[in-house]
Design goal:
The complex is a heterodimer of chains A (163) and B (103). With 163 residues, chain A is of the alpha+beta class. Helices cover 16% and strands 34% of the residues of chain A. Chain A has a single domain, classed as SoxY domain (Immunoglobulin-like). Chain B is mostly beta strands. The chains are: A alpha+beta (163), B mainly beta (103).
């Protein structure tokens, strides 16, 4: 293996795009080999989690933009009384889903969670996220190499940042 | 020490539904304690589920996942009695692993 494993991980490599990703992604999925960006990779997408705003985080994670789709169903409360624990789930009728990610636009770091969906796993996830304040919430589903999104506005009455 | 991971995996025909609850502070690094000192970030980065030697679900998490995280998903291809292996690692290098029988 040519991957460098050391104190300074390969953040730069990940961002440098397809050529280096191809090296890293040896054990990759049977389909969609070409658009294998960080999300389809086995590594923790550290750079994406550091991005402050949503557009940068999506770019760092997937390297492209998503188009809204009514096949992505995002379920979140209209009003969250406690921003520290907001139950959120997403389901989709899309085929060949490889990952699902959640972005909370108004949080200090937009990317909240990213899930890899191997073949055979139902493309649906439920989890609980923190929200600093009233925010736009975006779910992105990666299916057959394309990105599809759904958004929802969640009103937060008590923020999830505590302190 | 009791495991930090609580799992319920139930088989419903071909589909296995997995619900997981993990005990973890999931500190963001932005909150200050009562003395005004910042509490350093401490959160789970990766949570993996394996069944019959195959990864069935992988979560990459940031600090925005709630304290004592909960996650639910379903997958095909397992049956009652199969073992599900769950493991997490956090940003401080701590980790925990457990196995659960699919009921």
């Amino acid at each position: 293996m040519t991957t460098t494993i050391g104190a300074h991980p390969t953040r730069r490599l990940i961002l440098q795009g397809a050529a280096s990703v191809a090296l890293l992604g040896l054990g990759n999925l049977p389909f969609g080999a070409a658009p294998a960006r960080a999300a389809a990779n086995d590594k923790y997408p550290e750079e994406a989690f550091k991005q402050k705003n949503e557009a940068d985080a999506i770019k760092a994670l997937y390297g492209r933009t998503a188009e809204p789709s009514d096949k992505v169903k995002l379920d979140a409360p209209e009003i969250a009384e406690n921003g520290g624990v907001v139950p959120i789930s997403v389901t989709t009728s899309l085929d060949k889903v490889t990952s699902i990610s959640f972005f909370v636009a108004e949080n200090p770091n937009a990317l909240a969670a990213s899930y890899r969906i191997p073949e055979g796993t139902i493309p649906a996830v439920a989890n609980r996220l923190k929200m600093a304040k009233t925010t736009k919430l975006t779910a992105i589903v990666e299916a057959d190499g394309k990105l599809y999104s759904a958004t929802k506005e969640v009103k937060v009455t008590v923020g999830g940042c505590g302190g | 020490m009791a495991s930090s991971i609580r799992v319920r995996a139930t088989s419903n025909g071909d589909i296995t539904e997995v619900q997981t609850l993990i005990q973890h502070p999931m500190d963001t690094g932005l909150v200050k304690d009562s003395k005004g000192e910042p509490i350093p970030a401490h959160f789970i980065q990766e949570l993996k589920f394996e069944c019959n030697g195959k990864e069935v679900f992988v979560a990459n998490w940031g600090t925005a996942v709630s304290k004592d995280p909960y996650v639910k998903f379903s997958f095909r291809g397992a049956k009652k009695g199969d073992e599900l292996k769950i493991s997490w690692t956090d940003n401080k290098g701590a980790s925990d692993t457990t196995t659960a029988k699919i009921a």
